[in-house]
Design goal:
Length: 324
């Protein structure tokens, strides 16, 4: 099969190789997917860069955790009814060496989700990490129905998913973003109000939610924690999945006096049952008419280095997809 891989970490143009590999075969409890599209996440780029300092987990890595295509083989214990189904998959390269930047990938059945017929395969390749992270960030502190949820960075991939999933769950959703064009993305995702990030943001949030924000989905913990604490309701919660500063200061006593709860969301290790619940909610949103995530750029497999470089230095918002 045609595949992309790296055997050392570094710059995309230096370490990514495209060539031929043997087709993988599914083991018991696994399915093989003939891929149509592979989604590129920032986490995929960081692994290739060794941004977290963990080194090469395997001698050879086919990158990317998210993808979509058609099941063409199943392992022992998996129903033959899966063969021929359009599916999206997630965590293909989570604690495994070979992800979705290839013509075929093999994943455990619990990481495979039927793709609604109305949804393009390339959109299916966008859903995994952003959607599951967003769902966990929205729901980790409990039910949000009838509550006010603030999504910081509501135009990003996780942010837009969080806006939609919180809206779907019956929350009142306030989103923040950095520009007018980003504002439209958050509104299309289902936000009730969208505020531009500026020096008066906390004041304008308090005007919209005078009793405070019940739950916050946070994209830039270090930069936004002071604002978050200013607008958080008594007993409110914050779920953060990213930060602008690896070592962040927190306003400790304000958090104590607010009886705040903070949740840190790492997509690889979200509990399995929460991941499965997330996939159901994502499909329900798509079936109800949600159009999914914006796609900024499409690349061919041979252009994978360019795709990674685009993720590192995007020129417009949206997801990056490699068509296989």
């Amino acid at each position: 099969m045609r595949a992309a891989w790296y055997e050392k970490q570094g710059a995309a143009c230096d370490v990514l190789t495209v060539g031929e590999m043997d087709e993988p075969q599914p083991l018991a409890g696994e399915v093989r997917i003939r891929l149509a599209a592979s989604g590129v996440n920032p986490g995929d780029v960081k692994k290739r860069q060794n941004a977290f300092g963990v080194g090469m987990p395997y001698p050879r890595v086919i990158p990317h955790s998210d993808g979509a295509g058609t099941v063409d083989e199943v392992g022992e214990g998996v129903s033959q009814e899966w063969i021929g189904r359009r599916v999206w998959c997630y965590a293909a390269q989570t604690y495994r060496p070979f992800g979705t930047a290839a013509e075929y990938t093999v994943v455990p059945l619990d990481r495979v989700v039927p793709l609604p017929e109305v949804v393009p395969l390339e959109q299916g390749a966008c859903l995994g990490i952003p959607g599951i992270t967003a769902h966990r960030a929205v729901h980790v502190a409990g039910l949000v129905e009838g509550r006010t949820v603030l999504v910081q960075g509501g135009s990003g991939a996780v942010g837009a998913c969080a806006v939609q999933l919180a809206h779907q769950a019956g929350a009142r959703v306030i989103a923040t973003c950095r520009s007018s064009s980003d504002r439209e993305i958050a509104l299309r995702a289902g936000a009730d109000e969208v505020l531009l990030t500026d020096a008066e943001l906390a004041e304008r949030i308090r005007e919209l939610a005078p009793d405070g924000i019940d739950h916050i989905v946070e994209v830039a913990f270090g930069a936004n924690i002071k604002t978050d604490v200013e607008v958080l309701a008594q007993g409110g919660s914050i779920a953060t999945y990213a930060t602008d500063a690896p070592t962040s200061e927190i306003p400790f006593w304000q958090l104590v006096f607010s009886n705040a709860r903070i949740f840190f969301i790492g997509s690889d290790d979200i509990p399995t049952e929460a991941k499965i619940e997330a996939t159901h909610s994502i499909n329900q949103a798509l079936e109800a008419g949600w159009q999914g995530l914006e796609i900024a750029e499409r690349f061919l497999l041979d252009e994978i280095a360019l795709a990674h470089e685009f993720v590192e230095h995007p020129t417009r918002p949206g997801r990056v997809v490699i068509t296989i």
